[in-house]
């Protein structure tokens, strides 16, 4: 899709017609763009600013090379690089051995998740994760000097031997077999997770010839290299059988072998026992071996293209290294460049040009290369220093993470972790660091080996270093490291950016903290939003992660490139398109938000390894007819499932949040990016607002296109997984030759965007294979409909096949299932309920897609209806002379057609698809079938459901009163149904109808209240029409009608119906009702006014008198008495009204007595302090004149209560200042007292 065209069309007030193909291509280009952005990361040599191999550089001398996050001002003081996972003490059996030891060493076997300890001639191996599975070997007589776990050569040992344990003593070198028992069925035997066994008998044993072996390392192809204290490099070579000139196992000295003539003379130097080799490091990807001597000399050995050769290439003594480094970094003290404590080979996945890093005691890193830059296929020919960045005695370096262990005291170490994960796409090497205290002296440091990573699918990923961790963190586990001390193992986890964000959300209790905002500032909006999506889509963090992406992601904005300043930080690149405005020519760019770009970025990262990969690979197979090339899938079922799970998570997130996207508004401006002349250019506010709204519309449409692409990707991945699970090569062989050739060159991207026909062909071949095997297709049919509904559509051909076998119920099931899959978010229903607005493109598309499915069902019903009323046996003129034609066995009889029609209707009515019922009832209205269906066969359940749906039918052609009549008839049918059957479903449906009727009566009450409003405005007329067009729910009635038009009586009825209670709200509603009635009777005579108010309040009160929560009598009485004083009404009418409403006289007396004794200053304020006593006097006088209102059994205690009250009132009155009013009240209460005593 060309966004220029789209924007221009938007400016004219419409949207261009886009095909589904255009939508997928538009979204696909966004994925391509962000994939390309992710591939633009720099190699380590580029970050180090080394242009070519012979122009070395220096970094790490400035503050910005190691930015301090706490001092950066972005609130990231608590952003951790590593976290302590756990500490595991040494197995207690080992602790007992330390007292008897003479020589002790410790180390790690990360490949099998084990640690090891040698005590003299014994070796112990255990799991460092939990201290269990302790194994040992005590078959040696000499002290063990070095140990290593290596992989065996293939084809030499029995399959149960997964590793070899190589042990070296003063006397001999021993190879022991290592095997594991599977802990459960299906676990990998070589995973190291099962119980470990050391074979008691050595596989090979050869003498050392008095060579002290200091270090052992093994290659992936089974070679074993050893460093000698005599300065020589050895190899332990072994084979299955003795050869003519070789033994089964032998030791080869590569430093003094005949191969040494390959070393250039100017690089040659003498070896001696005074400079022993202390460390070996192997680059498995390039097949290069590096050696470090005790005095700091680094040697390079080339193992050949396939890792089976050996030649010594170069060596640099420490003196030359220090000299070269000092020449590069002139401001650094020379002592910082020595001694060397560690070397680490950098594989192809870490850097294309930098091959080795050496670390000094002061923590300085020295980077080396063995090839001229860019010459990735040649063999090593040199060792050249290319870069240089408190008491370090151990180090570890791999994939951009450096760990340094420095001595603090004799009893403790400090572990420094240095990593550039927080600065992934910077054009220079920037790193964060963190120190952690370690109890005890560190004996070994290593990395826990992660599970096997998915293989790369694009050639580029073989020739270029791996991308930053931020690109692959969604599919990789956090890296874990283990330190071994005399106290036990310390296991630490390197936090990925997604782990850091998750921890910030938990620690800071939500997304509104300064720390979380600081994370967005550090990583920029796009990257941070993509990281948020990992959490939101995988449910690894609180629900705030999804909201965080939307909140901080902002929205699309408009910029004017003719007068533009710096781009808003982290907002992505502008998307250019022109939009002409009336009276001026303004060229507008659309700057997509971080939310939009974050979704594209995350989607691209999920698909990174498959997006541009070919779907198939050729697999040659020998057959009797010769070699046959089968098309096999390039991806395994596990790989497809892994990607599919991530895509489904993103799809669910996008679908869920798209329901709450209400479109552009003034409040959607990205936070922190104000509209300034730098951003928007010199234009007026109206134009700026229009362009901004237009930009947000464009972004919304783009997000809808991305959503469509995600759905298609989800379906294609699901289809490919089904095909792989059903032997892809056999299914592909059923394609035509042209289709096979097309599939052979097709990438996953092409299959998604333009491969719908190919997907259909593959589905056809899958079904054909089932049919050829005479197998039922029900299961795979259901699976395909569930997984890929848009690819396996319910078109006329499919429905026709069902119709041929009279499987009409299958047509209903298939069409409804596909309709749901095409529109899982129910956009079509929203579109329908909103009045089918023209601007809702996605809703209209979903509506049309659903109607296409529904038409298949109604067409089937029409066919059955026609067949059920036809009479083929009726006399007719023959079409041709001769005997009558043979009856068509596939033709339905009228009786069968009627039965099938009834079955289809029954199944259709069970559907909960509201929009389908709309389509069904529209068809029924047009076919004049409604009354017939209701009267037919006394099918009360079906009749009730149809009447219910008729009541809910959208449109103003059925007024509200008619809808209530439909519901009333539905209730009768439902009750008739429950008298014949006792189904729980029917009972539940009856209850649902009763609730609908109750709400519908409220809706009628609202409508009548609106009709009584004198100023009949256009808004009121629209509301009246709306109330006629649908049955609404309580929430909508309250918010959009009762509350909007201040219908207090209706609001009270709705609250009561919903069972919601808010005391303050109920009192406020009653106050508004009373005020409304009082205001409505203004100008009437007092007696008439009292009567009108009284009649209205009594009618309302009788509805709620039995539910005290919704009839706060005390509040109502108090408020009525106050208003009566204001408008000078009588003292009798309030309590008389309450008695007529149904409130007992005892309750009335209690309320008035409490009101009087509360001493409310209100009565003093209005200068009516005796008002309540006047009312009480009138109330008691009414009781004495009408004693029958009190039940006879309550009369005596009530009389006693009244006498007590009168006595207290007299005391109060006599304590007051004597006035005429006071004297009259005292006289009245005394008279009452005597009458009560007689009563």
Automatic annotation (TrEMBL):
PANTHER family: NUCLEAR PORE COMPLEX PROTEIN NUP155. The keyword ATP-binding does not apply. Residues 593-801, 936-1216 form the Nucleoporin Nup133/Nup155-like C-terminal domain. Residues 874-893 are annotated as: Disordered. This is Nuclear pore complex protein Nup155. Its main location: nucleus. Residues 878-888 have a biased composition (Pro residues). InterPro entries: Nucleoporin_Nup133/Nup155_C (IPR007187), Nucleoporin_Nup133/Nup155_N (IPR014908), Nucleoporin_Nup155 (IPR004870), Nucleoporin_Nup155_C_1 (IPR042533), Nucleoporin_Nup155_C_2 (IPR042537), Nucleoporin_Nup155_C_3 (IPR042538). Residues 83-491 form the Nucleoporin Nup133/Nup155-like N-terminal domain. The keyword Flavoprotein does not apply. It is found in: Nucleus. Keywords: Nucleus, Transport. It holds the Pfam family Nucleoporin_C. It comes from Tegillarca granosa. Belongs to the non-repetitive/WGA-negative nucleoporin family.
């Amino acid at each position: 899709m060309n966004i220029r065209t789209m924007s221009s069309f938007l400016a004219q007030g419409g949207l261009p017609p886009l095909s589904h193909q255009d939508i997928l291509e538009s979204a696909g280009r966004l994925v391509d763009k962000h994939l390309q952005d992710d591939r633009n990361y720099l190699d380590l040599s580029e970050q180090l600013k080394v242009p070519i191999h012979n122009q070395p550089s220096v970094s790490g001398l400035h503050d910005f090379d190691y930015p301090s996050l706490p001092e950066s001002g972005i609130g990231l003081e608590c952003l951790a690089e590593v976290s302590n996972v756990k500490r595991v003490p040494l197995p207690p059996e080992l602790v007992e051995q330390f007292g008897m030891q003479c020589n002790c060493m410790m180390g790690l076997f990360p490949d099998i998740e084990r640690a090891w300890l040698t005590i003299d001639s014994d070796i112990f191996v255990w799991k460092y994760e939990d201290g269990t599975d302790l194994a040992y070997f005590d078959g040696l007589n000499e002290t063990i000097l070095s140990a290593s776990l290596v992989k065996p050569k293939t084809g030499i040992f029995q399959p149960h031997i997964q590793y070899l344990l190589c042990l070296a003593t003063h006397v001999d070198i021993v190879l022991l077999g290592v095997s594991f028992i599977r802990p459960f069925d299906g676990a990998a035997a070589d995973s190291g997770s099962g119980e470990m066994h050391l074979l008691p008998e050595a596989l090979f044993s050869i003498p050392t010839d008095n060579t002290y072996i200091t270090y052992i390392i093994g290659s992936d192809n089974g070679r074993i290299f050893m460093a000698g204290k005599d300065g020589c490099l050895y190899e332990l070579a072994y084979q299955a059988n003795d050869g003519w000139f070789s033994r089964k196992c032998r030791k080869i000295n590569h430093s003094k072998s005949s191969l040494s003539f390959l070393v250039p003379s100017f690089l040659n130097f003498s070896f001696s026992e005074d400079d022993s080799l202390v460390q070996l490091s192997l680059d498995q990807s390039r097949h290069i071996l590096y050696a470090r001597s005790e005095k700091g000399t680094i040697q390079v050995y080339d193992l050949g293209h396939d890792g089976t050769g050996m030649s010594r290439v170069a060596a640099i003594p420490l003196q030359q290294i220090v000299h070269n480094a000092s020449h590069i970094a002139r401001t650094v003290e020379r002592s910082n460049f020595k001694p060397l404590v560690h070397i680490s080979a950098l594989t192809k996945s870490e850097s294309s040009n930098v091959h080795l890093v050496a670390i000094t005691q002061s923590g300085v890193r020295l980077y080396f290369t063995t090839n001229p830059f860019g010459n990735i296929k040649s063999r090593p020919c040199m060792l050249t220093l290319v870069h240089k960045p408190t008491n370090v005695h151990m180090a570890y370096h791999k994939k951009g993470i450096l760990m340094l262990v420095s001595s603090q005291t004799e009893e403790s170490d400090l572990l420094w972790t240095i990593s550039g994960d927080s600065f992934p796409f910077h054009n220079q090497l920037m790193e964060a660091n963190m120190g952690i205290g370690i109890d005890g002296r560190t004996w070994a440091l290593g990395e826990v080996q992660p599970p096997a990573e998915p293989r790369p699918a694009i050639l580029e990923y073989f020739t270029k270093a791996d991308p930053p961790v931020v690109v692959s963190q969604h599919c990789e586990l956090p890296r874990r490291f283990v330190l071994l001390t005399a106290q036990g193992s310390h296991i630490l986890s390197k936090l990925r950016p997604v782990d850091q964000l998750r921890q910030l959300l938990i620690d800071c209790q939500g997304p509104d903290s300064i720390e979380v905002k600081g994370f967005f500032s550090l990583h920029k909006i796009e990257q941070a939003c993509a990281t948020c999506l990992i959490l939101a889509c995988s449910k690894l963090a609180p629900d705030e992660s999804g909201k965080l992406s939307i909140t901080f992601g902002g929205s699309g904005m408009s910029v004017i490139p003719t007068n533009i300043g710096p781009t808003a930080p982290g907002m992505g690149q502008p998307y250019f398109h022109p939009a002409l405005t009336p009276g001026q020519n303004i060229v507008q760019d659309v700057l997509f938000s971080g939310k939009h770009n974050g979704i594209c970025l995350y989607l691209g990262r999920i698909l990174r390894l498959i997006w541009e990969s070919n779907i198939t690979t050729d697999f040659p197979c020998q057959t009797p007819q010769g070699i046959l090339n089968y098309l096999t899938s390039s991806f395994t079922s596990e790989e497809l499932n892994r990607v599919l799970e991530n895509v489904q998570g993103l799809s669910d997130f996008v679908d869920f949040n798209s329901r709450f996207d209400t479109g552009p508004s003034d409040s959607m401006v990205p936070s922190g990016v104000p509209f300034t002349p730098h951003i928007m250019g010199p234009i007026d506010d109206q134009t700026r607002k229009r362009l901004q709204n237009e930009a947000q519309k464009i972004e919304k449409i783009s997000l809808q296109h991305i959503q469509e692409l995600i759905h298609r990707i989800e379906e294609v991945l699901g289809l490919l997984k089904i095909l792989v699970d059903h032997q892809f090569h056999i299914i592909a062989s059923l394609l035509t030759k042209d289709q096979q050739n097309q599939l052979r060159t097709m990438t996953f991207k092409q299959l998604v965007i333009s491969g719908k026909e190919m997907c259909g062909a593959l589905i056809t071949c899958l079904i054909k294979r089932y049919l050829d095997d005479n197998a039922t297709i029900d299961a795979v049919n259901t699976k395909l409909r569930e997984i890929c509904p848009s690819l396996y559509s319910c078109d006329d051909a499919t429905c026709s096949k069902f119709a041929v076998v009279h499987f009409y119920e299958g047509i209903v099931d298939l069409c409804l299932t596909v309709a749901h899959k095409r529109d899982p978010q129910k956009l079509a229903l929203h579109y329908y309920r909103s009045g089918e607005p023209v601007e809702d493109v996605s809703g209209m598309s979903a509506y049309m897609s659903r109607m296409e499915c529904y038409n298949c069902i109604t067409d089937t019903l029409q066919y059955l209806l026609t067949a059920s009323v036809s009479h083929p046996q009726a006399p007719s003129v023959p079409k041709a002379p001769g005997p009558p034609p043979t009856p068509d066995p596939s033709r339905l009889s009228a009786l069968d057609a009627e039965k099938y029609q009834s079955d289809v209707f029954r199944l259709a009515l069970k559907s909960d698809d509201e929009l389908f019922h709309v389509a069904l009832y529209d068809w029924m209205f047009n076919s004049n079938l409604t009354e017939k269906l209701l009267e037919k066969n006394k099918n009360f359940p079906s009749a009730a459901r149809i009447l219910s749906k008729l009541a809910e039918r959208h449109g103003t052609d059925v007024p509200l009163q008619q809808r209530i009549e439909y519901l009333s008839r539905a209730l009768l049918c439902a009750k008739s149904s429950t008298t014949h059957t006792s189904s729980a479903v029917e009972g539940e449906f009856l209850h649902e109808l009763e609730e609908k009727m109750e709400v519908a009566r409220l809706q009628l009450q609202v409508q009548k209240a609106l009709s009584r409003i004198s100023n009949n405005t256009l808004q009121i007329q629209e509301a009246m029409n709306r109330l006629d067009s649908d049955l609404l729910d309580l929430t909508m009635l309250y918010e959009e009608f009762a509350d909007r038009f201040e219908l207090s009586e209706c609001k009270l009825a709705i609250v009561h119906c919903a069972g919601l209670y808010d005391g303050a709200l109920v009192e406020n509603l009653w106050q508004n009702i009373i005020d409304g009635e009082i205001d409505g009777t203004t100008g009437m005579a007092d007696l008439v006014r009292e009567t009108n108010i009284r009649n209205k309040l009594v009618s309302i009160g009788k509805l709620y008198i039995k539910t005290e929560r919704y009839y706060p009598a005390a509040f109502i009485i108090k408020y009525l008495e106050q208003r009566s004083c204001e408008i000078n009404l009588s003292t009798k009418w309030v309590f008389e009204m309450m008695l007529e409403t149904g409130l007992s006289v005892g309750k009335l007396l209690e309320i008035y007595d409490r009101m009087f004794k509360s001493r409310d200053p209100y009565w003093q304020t209005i200068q009516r302090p005796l008002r309540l006593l006047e009312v009480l006097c009138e109330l008691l006088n009414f009781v004495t004149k009408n004693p029958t209102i009190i039940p006879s059994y309550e009369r005596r205690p009530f009389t006693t209560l009244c006498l007590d009250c009168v006595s207290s009132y007299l005391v109060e009155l006599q304590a007051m200042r004597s006035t005429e009013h006071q004297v009259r009240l005292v006289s009245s209460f005394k008279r009452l007292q005597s009458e009560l005593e007689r009563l």
